[in-house]
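2024-03-11 09:14:02 INFO receiving multi-entity request
2024-03-11 09:14:02 INFO entity count = three
2024-03-11 09:14:03 INFO echoing inputs for audit
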Amino acid sequence: MITRVVEGWVEEPLKRFVDDARVVLALMLHPSGQVMAQHGFARAMDVMSACALAAAIHASASELGRQLDGKPFSGIHQAGKDRQLFLAEAETAQGSYIFVTVFDAESSLGLVRLYFEELRAGLASAAPALEESSEPILAEHFESELNRNLAALFGRA
Amino acid sequence: MTGPRTPTPFGSLLDTLTRQRGVKAGMVVSESDGIIIDSNMQIGVHGDRVAALAASLYRKARMSATAAGLGTATFFQLEAERGRLCAAGRNDLVVVVVTEAQANVGLIRMELLRAAEGFA
Amino acid sequence: MSLVNYATREITCKIVYYGPGRSGKTTNLHYIYGQVPEDRKGKMVSLATQTDRTLFFDFLPLDLGSISGFTTKFQLYTVPGQVYYQTTRKLVLQGADGVVFVADSQARQLDENIESFQDLHANLADQGVDARAIPLVIQYNKQDLPKDLILGEPELRDAINFRGVPDFSADALHGPGVFETLRGISELVLKRLSTPGAK
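2024-03-11 09:21:47 INFO inference complete, emitting structure
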């Protein structure tokens, strides 16, 4: 199974977590719903949907925690018939990230929580300090490419 | 996880186990979740960590025994340099005991099996 | 903040369709979903009530293809429009790279439009986002309705678009204006990535 990451520093701690905790799927995302790393998904588009839903669960659960308890809940566990889901937040120098994992009978909630603490520590020590790039990413005149792509997308090419 | 735990029906069972000489920790753990239901342990034992890993080990040992055609596993013991980890279980509950190397395993085994019987 | 992956040369941007209840935010996404080929879109996720009103959000991932050598992906979200979903709107707005404000052109909906536009500004400010700095376009939807029921583009512009952001007339149900709106917000969002120091 392939693990894909957006930023290199995430890869090693995430791979170690997946190996140790023996989980089926793992996702790390920005609270806005953008993927940072994933393990176990076949299609990039599925990852995006999973991230959107995970960010929504996290945001609403945190808000529910704040409204009921004065502070956000620290993690969520949901057990299905064969698979279970664990969702929690990890704080790094790059900001906080949401971590979601799905596991089956090969693992357990106790193991996932145990190795998640190690992942959290691994990410915190691996994350480089936040640096804002001042270099432009796209070419100055990207509009023609954008227009061409959008037209093709809408069948107007 | 810290703080006082809610009283459970396993309090007296754990008291009996941890009264044995050389026993550092006793805990009742959910086999499928690897989470402590009740425990009695000395300072320095990483309860949540031991529970998660021991439950996983016990589960795999139990399944190995079944796969090998040996029937239901009754007692599990892991010997290490500075002590032992023993477990017995029934119906998704596992009693896990962490002992020093010199502890009387025979007595502990008997108590563990008796405790597991109580999970029927 | 747009997410840029230099290793795989991918850019991901979050666009939120905002506006009052029943203004046509979900309809915009449905139209886009219907137009885009299968291999360039993900599943459209809708967390809706039994009566098909948006409960949490609608979500549609789009693959825009390569721009300046970067595979560019857009995540389109809608917020629930009804007043009582304030908390949810705030959550969905979190981390948005651009906003499409979908106004309902019906004359009787003018107050709702203005209220929702003010709500957008308040929610952005709550998240520490300067509403004047975030890419924003306005869509005047339902321009296909009978003329006596709706306000024209100039009147709507006067009432809502006091900042003079790009605006588009649309009929999201049948398509006119949907593509132009998406192109408008895409340009503004990507413009930030082509400007030094403005990621």
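2024-03-11 09:21:48 INFO post-check: Residues 47-67 of chain B form the longest helix (21 residues).
2024-03-11 09:21:48 INFO post-check: Helices of chain B lie at 11-18, 47-67, 105-117.
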